[in-house]
Design goal:
Layout lengths: L13 H8 L12 H54 L5 H8 L3 H7 L3 H25 L3 H18 L1 H6 L8 H23 L9 H18 L6 H13 L18 H14 L7
Helix pairs in contact: 2-3, 2-5, 5-6, 5-8, 6-8, 6-9, 6-10, 9-10
Length: 282
């Protein structure tokens, strides 16, 4: 027997179903509906998209600026290392900026003072200086360790006028460099004490004597660099000979390096006179 369908189920229209699923926040405001509501919704979506695009563009621009700043900094440091090595720490900063392809204002934004630029450019060289001292302590023979580190430091000086200047001065404005210097100095004192305890280094030798040697070697290197570039080696060998005691064992390479020729020294002295404005220009 069939039962007559006396109660028909009322189906909600699709729009009502959507309204049920929407949250109160998503419901259209009273009085907004139809085409006008659609236009308002599209306008709001467009505004949000434009805002997101603007934020993305701004973020990209900031990243680009940071990348440009990093490239400028790297270029300045690379050029500064070369210029300081060639001309010393008194080299004009304008020269560094020009070679790096930046304006002097950009250089000063990255490095407000000469000291900060010097420290950033030469910190790796000072680290080499500290490492040389550390290795000297590992050399089994105390005299070889002392003589070897003196020769290595002077070699670093000869190859870099900027480092040569720096080793003869302080740079109190940069803690990194001074910390490395303090570490190296402590290690060098240990090297000196070990050689003295072994009876191979003069008992009256002190750390300040090494500073005097570095200053003197810097002057020798500066005057003879162009005409007798290896003259510093003989000077350092003579100094080491004066530092040693009679009990110092002979080193395999202890023979004095060849002296510069008379002609080389004459040219070097003439060149220095010209630099000081006391001779005829070439």
């Amino acid at each position: 027997m069939s039962i007559p369908n006396t109660c028909k189920v009322r189906r909600l229209p699709s729009t009502s179903l959507i309204m049920i699923l929407m949250t109160a926040r998503d419901q259209p405001k009273p009085g907004v509906g139809g085409v006008a509501g659609d236009r308002a919704e599209r306008s709001a979506c467009g505004h949000e998209e434009r805002r997101l695009c603007a934020d993305a563009a701004s973020g990209h621009e900031e990243r680009q600026l940071r990348a440009d700043a990093a490239r400028n900094r790297d270029a300045i440091l690379a050029v500064a290392r070369d210029v300081f090595a060639e001309h010393g720490l008194e080299a004009p900063l304008e020269t560094i900026a020009a070679r790096a392809g930046v304006g002097i204002a950009t250089l000063y934004r990255r490095f407000p003072t000469r000291e900060k630029l010097v420290a950033a450019a030469l910190v790796e060289k000072v680290a080499e200086y500290a490492e040389a001292a550390r290795r000297a302590l590992a050399v089994p023979d105390p005299w070889d360790g002392f003589a070897g580190v003196v020769e290595r430091i002077c070699e670093l000086q000869a190859g870099d006028r900027g480092l040569s200047d720096l080793l003869s001065m302080t740079l109190s404005a940069d803690e990194r460099v001074e910390e490395l210097r303090r570490t190296a100095n402590d290690l060098l004192i240990a090297v000196i004490d070990r050689a003295k305890a072994a009876g191979t280094l003069r008992e009256d030798f002190v750390g300040e004597d090494l500073v005097l040697l570095l200053i003197a070697t810097a002057a020798v290197t500066h005057v003879t660099r162009a005409d007798a570039p290896e003259a510093w080696r003989r000077f350092v060998a003579l100094a080491l000979d004066s530092f040693s005691t009679r009990g110092s064992p002979p080193r395999p390479d202890s023979a004095l390096p060849d002296p510069p020729s008379t002609a080389q020294m004459t040219r070097a002295m003439i060149r220095l006179a010209r630099e000081r404005g006391c001779g005829e220009r070439a």
